[in-house]
Amino acid sequence: GYPRLSSIYASYGFDVRHVPLDAGGIDIDALDASGADIVHIMPSHQFPTGRVTSVTRRYELLGWLAGGSERYLVEDDYDNEFRMAGRPIPSLASIDVLGRVIYIGTFSKSLGSALRLAYMVLPPVLAARYDAALGFYSSTVGVVDQICLARLLESGDYARHVNRYRTQRRQVRDALLAALAASPAAPRLSVEEADSGLHFVLAVRTGATEAQIARAGLRHGVRLAPMSRYATADDGAPWDDAAGYAGVGASAPLPGYADTMPRFVMQYDGLSPEAVPRCSAALAAAVLETAR
Q1: Which of 140, 184, 257, 279 has the greatest number of C-beta atoms within 10 Å?
Q2: Which domain of life is it from (predicted)?
């Protein structure tokens, strides 16, 4: 998961539990066993795995909500505009008849993180409670910025901008994937979840560890984000590349995976077309340097 989320919730005094996921999304049995009342998920593009929650699992999540009167689901749709293939996926909020899904999103991917623009759509009951308890708060986004964004949305210019940007990012992604497929390291590389959003997962068939490949990447000029960096046990203990979780061992797969291949989160929203050849060459060199 996204480590900063855990830190934010913990800072407000919440008892944070980390729930595993499988190919279909969050594990419902593990969610039940966790005793949680609130679940924060990214069903359209889970970070860091890139997995999309299946339709069946989405309805199971709505069933989980129905199992308790104070259960809520936070649907974090942080890059929903950038699905690269297929039709857009309906949000959980759009099929929520209980009024228990809190939908949040951001303009950081589409307009830039410096603007600090985000939004939250509350169910009617929670919206009323929010107004009563916190309605005195002022928005941290300036009025001018809000008016500009509203006009951008109402005019259709925002949708046109997103379409252009998505096309540009798809071209960069395709160029990167083609360069990796043509590289000497291609037989060792496997791409996962390439169409879900602005990052994909790169798996490497090798006897080296993620840390070893990442260090080699730095020597060749590319910074890699190991998947294990985002793995956390239920007790909050991070994954150790050499020892795994305490009592588990490094030979065990990362949670949610059936194999022990090193994996890396490949974000390309900031990658320029000109940098693609250098990036792919450096990555291939790092993989081959550490190959066993």
Answers
A1: 279
A2: Bacteria
d(CA 211, CA 240): 10
CB proximity list for 280: less than 8 A, separation 6 or greater: 176, 179, 180, 183
* CB neighbour list of residue 185: distance below 8 Å, 6 or more residues apart: 283, 284, 285, 287, 288, 291
How many residues are there in the chain?
292
pLDDT in tens, 245-278: 433 445 678 878 888 999 999 999 999 999 999 9
What is the fold, at CATH topology level, of the domain defined by 3-137?
Aspartate Aminotransferase; domain 2 (3.40.640)
Q: Is 73 exposed, middle or buried (0-12, 13-18, 19+ CB in 10 A)?
A: buried
User: Is the separation of the CB atoms in 200 and 258 below 8 Å?
Assistant: no
The model's pLDDT over 35-66, given as tens digits with 9 standing for 90+, comes to 999 999 999 999 999 999 999 999 999 999 99
CATH superfamily of the 168-289 domain? Aspartate Aminotransferase, domain 1 (3.90.1150.10)
Ramachandran class of 242: left when φ > 0, alpha when ψ lies in -120 to 50, beta otherwise? alpha
Residue 15 makes CB contacts below 8 A (sequence gap 6+) with: none
Rounded to 5 degrees, what are φ and ψ at 29?
Answer: -65, -45
The domain spans of the chain are 3-137, 168-289
